[in-house]
Design goal:
The chain is of the alpha+beta class. 40% of the residues lie in helices and 21% in strands. It has an eight-stranded mixed β-sheet, sandwiched between helices. Strand 12 (328-332), helix 13 and strand 13 (355-357) form a beta-alpha-beta unit. The chain is elongated. The structure holds one RNA strand.
RNA sequence: GUGAGUGUAGCUCAACUGGCAGAGCACCGGACUGUGGCUCCGGGGGUUGAGGGUUCGAGCCCCUUCACUCACCCCA
């Protein structure tokens, strides 16, 4: 009986992994330019970390977490997102004491037990950044610039960044109440879902896609009218900086995030080619979070991108060019040759030569076919004659030429490379 | 959690109103002894997702079940 992978947990096979590596490398290069540094944190955390940070009435915490009881009775959870763990580590290791501002990034798998569909898996991967220790609008702008540049760098097709301010603990409660009161009056016209949202999380009414609800919501009061002076100023500054720097974005008064810890600046990225799940990323400011997790009262802001969705939204320019080409394929023709070739290849590989080895168990024909398929520009042939001469015969695959016993087994890699280069001129 | 669709070779898919389970690609081998792509020839591969039912006979019809996909919900 075959064992299949678990529902919503996917394999990434060779070929596809090159695209992943490409994305990660481009992201790393960009992060370095913005001077963000990598953190690696555990995949498993105490369940309480997520219930306290994400919010225990959110969908994630209520029904999507992979939670289990460890043998000592502790409740543990596979992380459903990255921010909580990063903040936990920040507090635990007192990073605030070491540096006034921490600019961090991470890559890794996240787990949410949802019904899988296009662009949505139970194990999915995110790249995220967090800035701890700055509450001024300039850092919001910088993070959004990084987000924008990252999307450009990764060649995400036709994306848009939507920005909003959710207010803070000063002004959001009043807005929440106003919205609830407004919706309450329309209750009978709302869909069943929205009626439920009304009690639990009125802000979520704003992103209902049911047309009748959307029509009602269009008439609803917007957060704008409720911002306190501080929030209003903050958001105005952020927008002014983005405008000045030429970062494109749209103000979207209706966006709300699915995690409770966001305050003030919040944003989402949408892109094409993703099916119904058109959000490739999102993030925002979470000023109270560090404190609520037992740390100092420092501000935080960050975002995360879903890598599977980024991959779905990539332009057509990405291909296998990332895989460095093979330099030589070595084909041994018998056991004796195989023995010799293994040792020679090892020496050359240690010097940085990129070599694939054929097997003497296979016919020369099939080794040649294999060499061709690997894209090897040269094949080194080793049989009886070559062993005797102490040198491999060379087949130039591109120019279809042969050179008998031409490359000595004693040569260094630079000698071999120099010789192979000279073949081009020889052929011309 | 809810709904719809689809399950046939490693992959993409055929197979008439129920009548011998096939093709292309991929893989392996061969076409003058130790030379690739192109062409030609050949080969291995399947419990038709699983279980039951109807029938002389089921890939096809009926029931059950499982898996996958898409969508709702929500989000990355």
């Amino acid at each position: 009986m075959k064992i299949a992978s678990v529902k919503g947990f996917h394999d990434v096979l060779p070929g596809e992994t090159a695209r992943w590596a490409w994305v990660e490398q481009r992201a790393r290069d960009l992060f370095a330019r913005y001077h963000f540094r990598e953190v690696r944190i555990p995949i498993v955390e105490k369940t309480e970390l997520f219930t306290r940070s994400i919010g225990d009435t959110t969908d994630i915490v209520e029904k999507e977490m992979y939670t289990f009881i460890d043998r000592d009775g502790t409740s543990l959870t596979l992380r459903p997102e990255g921010t909580a763990g990063v903040v936990r580590a920040y507090v635990e290791h007192a990073l605030a004491q070491r540096e006034p501002v921490s600019k961090l990034f991470y890559f890794g798998p996240m787990f949410r037990r949802e019904r899988p569909q296009k662009g949505r898996l139970r194990q999915f991967h995110q790249v995220g950044v967090e800035v701890l220790g700055r509450d001024d609008p300039a850092i919001d702008a910088e993070v959004l610039m990084l987000l924008h540049d990252l999307l450009v760098e990764l060649d995400v097709r036709r994306f848009s960044i939507e920005v909003n301010s959710l207010g803070d603990e000063q002004c959001r409660p009043a807005y929440r109440e106003a919205l609830r009161a407004f919706a309450e009056a329309q209750r009978t016209y709302l869909c069943a879902n929205c009626q439920r949202r009304l009690e639990r999380n009125p802000l979520r009414l704003l992103d209902c896609k049911v047309p009748s609800c959307a029509a009602i919501v269009a008439e609803a009061p917007t957060i704008e009218g409720f911002w306190c002076q501080a929030c209003r100023d903050h958001f105005a500054q952020v927008r002014r900086m983005l405008d000045y720097a030429g970062v494109p974005y749209q103000v979207a008064p209706r966006i709300v995030r699915g995690l409770d810890y966001y305050v003030r600046t919040a944003f989402e990225v949408k892109a094409e080619g993703l099916g119904a799940q058109n959000a490739v990323g999102g993030g925002g400011r979470y000023d109270g979070l560090v404190r609520s997790l037992g740390g100092p009262d420092v501000a935080g802001i960050g975002f995360a991108l879903g890598l599977e969705r980024v991959l779905l939204a990539l332009g057509t320019t990405v291909d296998e060019r990332l895989e460095p080409p093979l330099e030589v394929f070595i084909a041994p023709l018998d056991r004796e040759a195989e023995l010799r070739v293994l040792a020679v290849a090892q020496r050359w590989r240690r010097e940085g030569f990129k070599i694939e080895l054929g097997s003497a168990h296979r016919s020369l024909k099939s080794q040649m076919r294999q060499a061709d398929k690997c894209g090897a520009p040269f094949v080194f042939l080793v049989g009886e004659a070559e062993l005797e001469a102490g040198a491999a015969s060379v087949r130039d695959m591109l120019r279809k030429r042969d050179y008998g016993c031409a490359v000595s087994f004693e040569w260094t890699v630079s000698q071999v490379r120099a010789y192979l280069r000279s073949l081009a001129e020889l052929a011309a």
